Amino acid sequence: MRMRRRRFLRGALGAAGAAAAASAAGGCGNLHSSDPDVLTFMFRGSTEERDVFAKAVELFTKKTGHRVDLISTSADQYATKLQTAILGNSTPDVFYLEPPRTMAYVTNGVLADISEYVDATDLPVDDVWPGGMNLYRFDGEQIGKGPLYAMPKDVGPFSFGYNKTLFEKLGVEPPDPDVPLSWEEFLDRCKDLTRERDGKPVSWGTSVNIGAELHSYAWSNGADWVDPTARTVTVDTPEFAEALQYVVDLREKHEVTPSINETEGLDGYQRWLRGQIGFFPVAPWDLTLYRTLDFEFDLCPYPAGKSGESATNIGSLGIGVSSKSRRPDRAAQLAMFLSCDPDAQDIIVGQGQTIPNTRTRAKEWVKDTSIEPQNKQEYVDIVEDYGRFVPNARTYTPEWLDTFFTNIQPVVEGRADVGEYLSSTQATMQSFLDEGYDQLRIDQEANS
Question: What is the pTM (predicted TM-score) of this model?
């Protein structure tokens, strides 16, 4: 057992590995402050997002009198720096965490149970999206039940969108704001949007980010990553193969997305920003930038496979409190404030960083047609109706899902068979998933 635990800990970026090592030692909660009355808050994001949340924290200090030291990083550096803090027994009082880290951080004593503070607050915590709250509940066996260990910073509906200006320019019928296109209809629109000038492509129907968007195509075709118990990987089904093949064919067969050569200089995202892509994801965190572009855009449902229903994923970050914090009451107050204080939401939502984190506010927000997108209701529909959280949020470690994309490039480029890849990858994914559950039991015993 000890050999397995040491081997697991060598995974430097493994959530459970970091958490397990951290739980073995004590230490104060303040990363940079020797004053126990000064909270430390570690968070990440673009420069714009960090500026916005810094303003919200400034408002917290103004309202409560509680001082907060900010530790902000870019998104690509955050995981490593947070882990270093945890391993160094200097976990910040309040910090962002991804949902797949919840089980490991709770099991290994990194996160504090904030239920008592949430139950006692006057802030509108009961109005926060229930799905977002449940991502950070864990009873020792199952996500979504038991004590609360973090407040959702946000729920991020990963919506589809389209370039209204390009559609109008090319005379292509825009998608219905409520009814998803079928895969056949979507392909037809993409073909109409893909144009050349002097023998060179100047616009394309879409551009697919396989890691972010395959969820939508698989789910809408009746496929899923795991069974309902999250114990068995299910990517080796005909429905999943059909979905992946459809995505591959968009470029390799139908040529309605930029080719490999065409993305070497400018990738799909950059071409969308230049107005050359018809359909493209429009997530809430994109809105600040997208509203500055030289074309109009709006939201629509993702195209639907044979289920006939659109599907997409919902992202989230949690705001957790360190179990080592010397002021857990104030730390929990900050987490709740950033999640749902009305004035803080004015700052955060108003700057185009998230959709409103409370249901009542969201109902009013969608009525505002003065700023893009017009069809904001699509975001709310995703959160309330048909969106799903990626299933690694319900498992002990996320590596089982990560491994799916490790060697997928030959498949995406049409150089490897879809069915063969899914069959072989299912076995590898299953092995990682099983190891994660084994590690859960090891860590539970070690921390009991």
Answer: 0.90
